[in-house]
Automatic annotation (TrEMBL), chains A, B:
Organism: Cephalotus follicularis
Full protein name: Chloride channel protein
Keyword Repeat: yes
Chief site of localization: membrane
Subcellular compartments: Membrane
Membrane topology per record: Multi-pass membrane protein
Transmembrane segments: 86-110, 139-161, 251-274, 286-305, 338-358, 378-398, 458-480, 546-563
Keywords, comma-separated and alphabetical: CBS domain, Chloride, Chloride channel, Ion channel, Ion transport, Membrane, Repeat, Transmembrane, Transmembrane helix, Transport, Voltage-gated channel
Gene3D superfamilies: CBS-domain, Clc chloride channel
Keyword Ion transport attributed: yes
UniProt record similarity statement: Belongs to the chloride channel (TC 2.A.49) family.
InterPro entries, A to Z: CBS_dom, CBS_dom_sf, Cl-channel/antiporter, Cl-channel_core, Cl_channel_pln, ClC
Amino acid sequence: MEENSREDNDIVIEGMMGYERKDSGMSVDEYGAMIKEPLLVKNRINTTSQIAIVGANVCPIESLDYEIIENELFKQDWRSRKKSEIFHYVVLKWTLALLIGLGTGLVGFFNNMAVENLAGFKLLLTNNLMLKDKYFQGFAAYAGCNLVLAIAAAALCAYIAPAAAGSGIPEVKAYLNGVDAHSILAPSTLFVKIFGSIFGVAAGFVVGKEGPMVHTGACIANLLGQGGSRKYHLTWRWLRYFKNDRDRRDLITCGAAAGVAAAFRAPVGGVLFALEEAASWWRSALLWRTFFTTAVVAVVLRGLIEFCRGGNCGLFGEGGLIMFDVNSAKTTYSTADLLAVIFLGVIGGILGSLYNYFVDKVLRAYSIVNERGPAFKVLLVITISLLTSCCSYGLPWLSKCIPCPAYLEERCPTIGRSGNYKNFQCPPNHYNDLASLFLNTNDDAIRNLLSSGNSKEFHLYTLLVFFVAIYFLGIITYGIAVPSGLFIPVILAGSSYGRLVGMLLGSLSDLDVGLFALLGAASFLGGTMRMTVSLCVILLELTNDLLMLPLVMLVLLISKTVADSFNHGVYDQIVKMKGLPYMEAHAEPYMRHLVASDVVSGPLITFSGVEKVGNIYHALKITRHNGFPVIDEPPFSEAPELCGLVLRSHLLVLLKAKRFTKQRVMTGSDTVRMFKAHDFAKAGSGKGVKFEDLDINEGEMEMFVDLHPITNTSPYTVVETMSLAKAAVLFREVGLRHLCVVPKTTGRPPIVGILTRHDFMPEHILGLYPHIKPHK
Amino acid sequence: MEENSREDNDIVIEGMMGYERKDSGMSVDEYGAMIKEPLLVKNRINTTSQIAIVGANVCPIESLDYEIIENELFKQDWRSRKKSEIFHYVVLKWTLALLIGLGTGLVGFFNNMAVENLAGFKLLLTNNLMLKDKYFQGFAAYAGCNLVLAIAAAALCAYIAPAAAGSGIPEVKAYLNGVDAHSILAPSTLFVKIFGSIFGVAAGFVVGKEGPMVHTGACIANLLGQGGSRKYHLTWRWLRYFKNDRDRRDLITCGAAAGVAAAFRAPVGGVLFALEEAASWWRSALLWRTFFTTAVVAVVLRGLIEFCRGGNCGLFGEGGLIMFDVNSAKTTYSTADLLAVIFLGVIGGILGSLYNYFVDKVLRAYSIVNERGPAFKVLLVITISLLTSCCSYGLPWLSKCIPCPAYLEERCPTIGRSGNYKNFQCPPNHYNDLASLFLNTNDDAIRNLLSSGNSKEFHLYTLLVFFVAIYFLGIITYGIAVPSGLFIPVILAGSSYGRLVGMLLGSLSDLDVGLFALLGAASFLGGTMRMTVSLCVILLELTNDLLMLPLVMLVLLISKTVADSFNHGVYDQIVKMKGLPYMEAHAEPYMRHLVASDVVSGPLITFSGVEKVGNIYHALKITRHNGFPVIDEPPFSEAPELCGLVLRSHLLVLLKAKRFTKQRVMTGSDTVRMFKAHDFAKAGSGKGVKFEDLDINEGEMEMFVDLHPITNTSPYTVVETMSLAKAAVLFREVGLRHLCVVPKTTGRPPIVGILTRHDFMPEHILGLYPHIKPHK
């Protein structure tokens, strides 16, 4: 049982509590036996519906402590804090923001350069073989390169850091909401995310590097904030100020913004992305620091691109670091134009929400394969890679050759890697328009789709084939064990859809087809991701044209509204599917019918202000609770009263130090002198004192330890009759991990239970009260 | 005493409480006498330092109730809520957002058109007289027009709506923080704000129409949200859903964003302004609705400008609705360029913080004059108007005539109203560069300063004179009884400063002087307003050039950092000076040394669950408390326990209905049947049942009334030993008006006191604990 409960994630178990122990006088072991039953019941409620989906090897999920633990040690530290220390802290904060910007900017650039060179080499090789009419060898070279790169990416993901697969944005979003999935920001994840993303994108998958960049930025921020990695002997001692979840959260918000800024060269868009999609708590001061970080990213990228202009970066420079030129000199729109745009938005919203629906289904199907082990993951990747290669190389054969248009600035057919007019199998002076889209990097394909002026560049039929292929390739690619962003697939599908609609409606509206393609991309983005302002600004920064702002806004608003009536945004969906207990900003309506005590369940483990070591040891052993209420009892107080809350991690440090006494006496001042506040600072995930590190002998088990110095004497409390909805608002707005529920009437024990994140999850509440209708 | 306490603002008095009444068995009248002393002490602490400044005729300040009052009536209403009602509510929310966008867009356009026509007429008149060499008549016409317009604006402000003076942004900011200054969003304020701003700007004052537009947007939102104005018989009954402070806050956030969007034609900038500067609470859903509102504004403006292109709007179209064209085709910067920009930012930051310092001093000086009455206000406006006219007309005489440059696209000297090359006193084919800046609307002057290409267009000396004049005119103009925005004066001063620096450093840097002017404006904006992302986006949208983004970001970051080390942002300063109790997002460091019970003071008025009517009547009479704890006592409960909190406004409605009983019995279900939740909905400010409306006879005074149905049974509580800092975080993050402090130990009365906004104000806390060092 103990091993079993250890396997489960802590938030599931934190929910159980009650107050029987002290009253019934059971030993901790008996008590351990007693709680088996409710524990199992609870697990059934949660694991079957939610957590089972992520697979057999469930990763432990930790909640984060954003609350300031105001115990005696903290207060002592606070009182003795010198002005110079505060100054150092501020300087460090900004230095870290600078370093995050620099790091993310460099990685973003490196990522782009590597992709451009790898993919460029592959495409040139294929092209050269095709020019010599060696079509089969061309396919072999193309598919072979793709396969090798895909296997490399998959092997990294499957064997080194499984957490690096996928977009990473949902996990970062959950982290910033207070949920730490296992090793999601670990250095190994960072490494795999960077190289896996490079190989995956270069392998021709319909994936983007944007989501992975966000995750990369967050990982870099976490690495810097933790003072390096102890595992790899990279630590800086002076970063101890940042050893808490609060400051780490801020750094990771900066990192996520820097990631978007680096991916799209969109500094303002990055800030807005962090604000609108990623962060759950926001402060004005953070806005400013995030802005600084993204500005640094922009400067770094600009400098490096300048450096590359001299041809120092291999094939980089022809494409890479997307910046599209869309021409919309037209500033007045007719009613027909607007109707066309509204139509585009509505259909885009429907297709976007359908995309989410399919992604969800495919992810659930894949998780069954992926659970079987790393080898199966790699096999799945190989399958998808071959399928993608066949589509990319095979489908262009369906397309007819188009004679090159006269009077063209570009060369036609294109020589080299990127460009609008791929020759493929066509005779000289002809181009294959489908090959221009498929046999290109994704960035170049988007650039081609957004190109304005020549509305005849692509056949209707070509666009239709490309749209259908990319729409479904995008859906089946997300979820394989490769770092895979969703932005680029969605933009690709959206812009081909938009251009298609533009051509179909060409007679009605005189907007440019390139502009239609952009609006199509906007409608798909709005329909899948459901962001508004940040997408709008990102698109503006990508296209460098403010005049199309009203149309982009219109399309985004329409497609989001339409899609919202069907399902949730794709990131929210993935967060939910992964079983991450995400606290929504608003309370669910049915919570108004419940009060706090309705969802709190027993039994509860509490400690006395001065507690027997053995009791603490056993409580830590049999549960994975992270917070324990401390009750002061006579003779330390007149009646039992709630002294506060101790954290598991603090108890472990205290027990490790073995400052015990034979008698039940308060030794607070002694402890305060012995420890410093940062001895209890939160180590990075997976570090710090563990239960296994404790080595307490029989004699010490009978001794006492004073918990007062490490007890947070200001825990947030709600009365048991408090409406659950209002308790949820408090929990979420203040960013809590534990919320104490106190009795309303006097003469009862001073604490009824503790509410944790898990107790607010709809699955938990609706499991307890099946008769409640969720939407009432 | 009663009358006296009535004069003070409620938040001052809400602080007093205690629990003596029930125990000592005093009658309410004796009790009323008893609380006199602490009341006066309290008042002394606050009024002298803070509130006195705004003048003798102190306006009452109300806190807003953002908390959902979960009483029985609410729960009943919630249970019986139909799906169609929720749907109506959502549709209404969006309809209101649409209407706010439409209204603000129309007003913004009307404002611009009126200003352009009024100022244009004035300038043409002056110009024509000057052309005939009638210089004195020219001055008379110019100064006369200015004076008439100024007196009109001042009279409106002084006699009809004093709240309309000034920028309005600080008040809107305070409102969104939970502080309702008297009639700040009233219909009369809206009227005066619109016309006062038009007259003020047309009168040639160094004021902008941007701040007033924000206030206007907020007023429009409030008017719509209140279901019209009952005073003017414009009400819509179906808006009753929005009769609460929570929904009103959301609407007003939309209104503020719409104001910026209309002022600058910057929809994204508007959203970001609302987010960064105006709003204290923010939700993702609100981001989207705000974005929709600003999109509507953008569409309305675009449509109207299109309409005016045919010359339908008089003199509008030559200037108006600022959209500057800055040319920065250069995308690479040398080190010298960057150093120049950094220098610009540092000095801009210093000058910006100095600007704030002077504005504060001048405001304090003016408030002494303004307190004396409306006539003095008008006199002050007349003085400043004459001074401004003298500067504008007189200073250009110091400037030498410059021969018109050859090869110019524009006509030189300028014919008509706006343009770069004003003839003034010069011979033909010459222009007076200082007159081009002074004898223009502010928008046109900025456009001239930002014009690129010709770096010799303005003399160094001219720019210096203009900069100094505008810097000080801007300072002395803010604070007079005219709606006056701060954006334009700051941009004017900043861009002349920037262009000046650009000319001085011209040999070192090869950035354009127009770009320098823009960066100078950015540095001043950063130095005074201390916004970052929103200013950046507003400047982008104004200039329609994304390539200068990195430089603008750099300058903003530097100037804000520099200025922050001297003082606070100008809006924060004004909020503080007006004595508005603004809750900061972070707790002050010294609050960690205090606990909740340290700042709660007695005595406290509480009610029984079923209370004698007379007691309630007298409590309402002698205090202006807005929340009263309700205690259940035997026989209704076993021991005294906290039942919840009733609001003053709810008590008034209940007493007005006169459903009293002879005996002390619970009649809850009866009451629930009698009332509907919206009978207790919050009316607009100044409306609803007042104490004077009650008419209770002697017999009724001895009867009882059941308070349970209107008692909020889920008030937020903190234990008395809770750290004040953490209580402040709760208060601010959840958006409370009352926070109940409960005892830690049992056997005491169930409530210790109530914390209100005022109890968290530094003035209050430092008044109670003078030995605390504020920055420790």
